């Protein structure tokens, strides 16, 4: 949903309630682990800390969606859950307008196939893009580094995203970079405190 002004809480809450029965905008679930034809695959990986303590702090930040609370982007509800099956609204301000984008948590890590910590959300039909985004953390046993990675598999969904594809791709890149900075800041703030 695209809006010409910042949406109020009532509008966002109504949008979120409409997501309860909304279907995913793609199939199959698990795109974030694939390289499907016709989709952009983007990976951004950055070291955000060192050791078990920083990993625990990063896990708390990840589960509270610190990597989505970027100033120009945010998440609703105020205290979202990253539990499997839960819905969230990603709110974004870009180029003079706002968008509300519906997402559902479609997988959690660790799993039998992947020992990292994190979650993946998939886009609902009420999202400008189509695909999945995986947010993960891992502790590198070789250097004790805490690594944050976003892996996005997406293609434009809404007409405006298709028409402004290069702008949308720039916003996606900005999101990944700002998300990494937000996660690093969350870890640094906890370490300094």
Characteristic key phrases:
alpha+beta, 4 helices, 193 residues, eight-stranded antiparallel β-sheet, 28% helix
Structural features, described:
- With 193 residues, the chain is of the alpha+beta class.
- Helices cover 28% and strands 35% of the residues.
- It has helices at residues 9-17, 51-63, 159-163, 165-192; strands spanning 2-3, 40-50, 73-76, 87-94, 97-109, 117-123, 129-139, 145-156.
- Strands 1, 2, 3, 4, 5, 6, 7 and 8 form an eight-stranded antiparallel sheet that branches.
- Helix 2 packs across helix 4.
- The longest helix has 28 residues, at 165-192.
Rg (CA only)? 16 Å
Counting H and I runs of at least 4 residues, what is the number of helices? 4
Shape: globular
> Low-confidence parts, pLDDT < 50 over ≥5 residues?
none
- What order do the helices and strands follow? EHEHEEEEEEHH
The percentage of residues in β strands lies in 35-45%
Largest sheet: 8 strands, antiparallel
Name the helicity range. Answer: 25-40%
Characterize this entry briefly.
The chain is of the alpha+beta class. It contains four helices and eight strands.
Write the layout of secondary structure elements.
Layout: E1 2-3, H1 9-17, E2 40-50, H2 51-63, E3 73-76, E4 87-94, E5 97-109, E6 117-123, E7 129-139, E8 145-156, H3 159-163, H4 165-192
Antiparallel strand pairs: 1-5, 2-8, 3-4, 4-5, 5-6, 6-7, 7-8
Helix pairs in contact: 2-4
């Amino acid at each position: 949903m695209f809006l010409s002004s910042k949406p109020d809480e009532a509008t966002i809450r109504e949008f979120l309630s409409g997501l309860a029965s909304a279907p995913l905008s793609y199939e199959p679930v698990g795109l974030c682990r694939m390289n499907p034809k016709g989709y952009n695959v983007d990976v951004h990986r950055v070291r955000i800390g060192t050791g078990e303590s920083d990993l625990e702090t990063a896990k708390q930040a990840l589960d509270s969606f610190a990597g989505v609370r970027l100033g120009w982007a945010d998440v609703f509800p105020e205290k979202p859950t990253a539990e499997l099956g839960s819905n969230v609204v990603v709110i974004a301000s870009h180029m003079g307008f706002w968008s509300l984008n519906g997402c559902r948590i479609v997988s959690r890590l660790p799993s039998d196939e992947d020992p990292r910590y994190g979650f993946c959300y998939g886009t609902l039909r009420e999202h400008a893009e189509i695909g999945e985004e995986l947010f993960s953390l891992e502790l590198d046993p070789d250097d004790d580094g805490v690594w944050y990675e976003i892996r996005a598999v997406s293609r434009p969904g809404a007409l405006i995203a298709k028409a402004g594809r290069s702008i949308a791709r720039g916003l996606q890149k900005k999101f990944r970079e700002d998300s990494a900075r937000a996660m690093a800041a969350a870890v640094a703030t906890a370490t300094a405190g």
